[in-house]
């Protein structure tokens, strides 16, 4: 196992709780000297003689000085998060007390952990595979119900199980094909080509589904930039305030009131929409307003969704068709929203814009049909219902490796269609195995691991 090659035989320490003042804080140690180090600071009892998964109250004393009264939690390896001996010291949440305890453990022989080192040791000791370890960081960073559910599903190993099953079957076929090479003079076939072809066909479909899920996964994990654009006085700032249910943007009857972009986050059904209220699009001699319009054009290009808000009393169906043509020419993902229907009347509005599809009519001022707009936004970015029980790819590294696996599987399938010999098929299968192993960590190197875990917070 890679963990044995790295030689992690020292003991690390770090705060496991967030920085700042709180009621309590947790200091975590992991390593083969965790018990010896804590025994030197915890005179109440011999921790080595205590059972695993137990709590003990006492004092931390260093150089004859009482630091704090604490509760010590014991987890003897391998029944711990890292697979090593782990001790967690729950102390009062003063940053000064935390630092005093950490300094005392370092004086007793521990060293300060690097970012993600506890989880890295869990991976190296076989407690987690690499996809599960990475999902720990995603879980910590989750900021919506959807991102939380997706991270939990991956941490439980849902994604890993699919990849492990495929990898095991491919390993079997690879071994059988390579065995055929040892008997090449006897013209025997150990690997059932029909079963291999069926496996590759099925795996291709599964992998394509996983790759396609990355778009949804990226939305769940990072949210989606949503630019609210339109002509001046279309009601963009009013709509932003209505969606947020607060007076975030200044609203007035004076066209061009919004001079710069205003950004806020709205959670709709577990998806984070980064709403951007932009300056109205028009030609202006006002240099400040012109800068705002330029920034609006930049936000349109960056947005995942553009909400084109227009005043149904001012624009015509021809105006909207021209705008749609411009959006399509620039390949912009847009949503047409007609505002101020309370003035003209909904029936009249529908007749006025008859024949134009994918359009919503609202009154931002009166909060009319705002829920319909929210539903349309979710549908626009997800292209359907979200089901976080399915395996969803949220990690760009996984997405890239899966694309390489899929490419290799296509090569295997094409090779069988063309009757390629076993040695060439074996090369393509080994390439599949390599990229599958990269995802789960069965094939990796220490530099890559250090890079991955360096993105974790210290203490996890």
User: In CATH, what is the class of the largest domain?
Assistant: Alpha Beta
Taken as a percent bin, the fraction of beta residues is 15-25%
- Compute the gyration radius: what is it? 30 Å
CATH architecture of the largest domain: 3-Layer(aba) Sandwich
Description:
The chain has 460 residues and is α/β, with parallel strands linked by helices. The protein has three domains: 127 residues, Gyrase A, domain 2; 122 residues, Four Helix Bundle (Hemerythrin (Met), subunit A) (Up-down Bundle); 160 residues, Rossmann fold (3-Layer(aba) Sandwich), CATH 3.40.50. 48% of the residues lie in helices and 17% in strands. It has 17 helices and twelve strands. Helix 5 runs antiparallel to helix 6 and helix 15 runs antiparallel to helix 16. The N terminus is likely disordered.
Task: Draw up the topology in text.
Elements: H1 2-6, E1 12-15, E2 24-30, H2 34-41, E3 54-62, E4 65-75, E5 86-92, H3 95-107, E6 111-112, H4 117-124, H5 130-141, H6 145-155, H7 158-182, H8 193-222, E7 224-229, H9 236-244, E8 262-268, E9 271-277, H10 287-302, E10 305-311, H11 317-329, E11 334-339, H12 341-344, H13 346-352, E12 359-361, H14 370-382, H15 396-417, H16 422-440, H17 446-453
Helix pairs in contact: 5-6, 7-16, 8-15, 15-16
């Amino acid at each position: 196992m890679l963990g044995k090659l790295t030689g992690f035989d020292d003991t690390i320490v770090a705060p496991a709780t967030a920085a700042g003042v709180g009621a309590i804080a947790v200091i975590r140690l992991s390593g083969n000297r965790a018990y010896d180090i804590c025994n030197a600071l915890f005179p109440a009892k011999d921790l080595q003689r205590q059972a695993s998964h137990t709590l003990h109250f006492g004092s931390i004393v260093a150089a004859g000085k009482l630091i704090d009264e604490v509760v010590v939690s014991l987890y003897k390896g391998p029944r711990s998060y890292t697979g090593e001996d782990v001790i967690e010291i729950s102390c009062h949440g003063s940053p000064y007390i935390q630092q005093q305890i950490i300094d005392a453990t370092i004086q007793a022989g521990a060293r300060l952990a690097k970012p993600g080192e506890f989880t890295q040791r869990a991976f190296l000791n076989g407690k987690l595979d690499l996809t599960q370890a990475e999902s720990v960081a995603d879980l910590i960073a989750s900021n919506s119900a959807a991102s939380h559910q997706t991270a939990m599903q991956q941490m439980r190993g849902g994604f890993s199980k699919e990849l492990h099953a495929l990898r095991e079957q491919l390993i079997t076929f690879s071994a059988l094909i390579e065995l055929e090479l040892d008997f090449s003079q006897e013209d025997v076939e150990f690997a059932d080509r029909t079963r291999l072809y069926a496996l590759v066909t099925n795996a291709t479909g599964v992998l394509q589904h996983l790759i396609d899920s990355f778009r949804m996964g990226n939305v769940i994990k990072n949210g989606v930039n949503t630019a609210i654009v339109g002509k001046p006085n279309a009601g963009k700032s009013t709509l932003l305030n209505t969606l947020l249910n607060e007076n975030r943007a200044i609203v007035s009857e004076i066209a061009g009131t919004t001079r710069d972009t205003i950004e806020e986050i709205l959670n709709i059904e577990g998806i984070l929409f980064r709403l951007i209220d932009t300056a109205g699009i028009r030609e202006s001699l006002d240099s400040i307003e012109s800068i705002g319009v330029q920034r609006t054009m930049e936000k349109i290009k960056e947005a995942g969704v553009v909400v084109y808000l227009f005043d149904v009393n001012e624009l015509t169906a021809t105006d909207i068709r021209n705008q749609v043509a411009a959006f399509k020419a620039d390949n912009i993902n847009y949503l047409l929203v007609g505002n101020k229907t309370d003035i003209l009347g909904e029936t009249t509005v529908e007749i006025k814009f008859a024949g134009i599809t994918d359009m919503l009519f609202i009154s931002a001022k009166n909060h009319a049909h705002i829920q319909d707009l929210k539903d349309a936004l979710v549908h626009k970015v997800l292209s359907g219902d979200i089901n976080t029980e399915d395996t969803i790819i949220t990690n760009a590294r996984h997405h890239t490796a899966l694309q390489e696996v899929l490419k290799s599987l296509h090569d295997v399938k094409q090779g069988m269609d063309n009757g390629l010999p076993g040695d060439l098929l074996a090369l393509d299968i080994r390439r599949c195995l390599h990229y599958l192993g990269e995802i789960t960590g069965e094939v990796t190197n220490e530099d890559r691991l250090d890079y991955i875990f360096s993105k974790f917070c210290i203490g996890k």
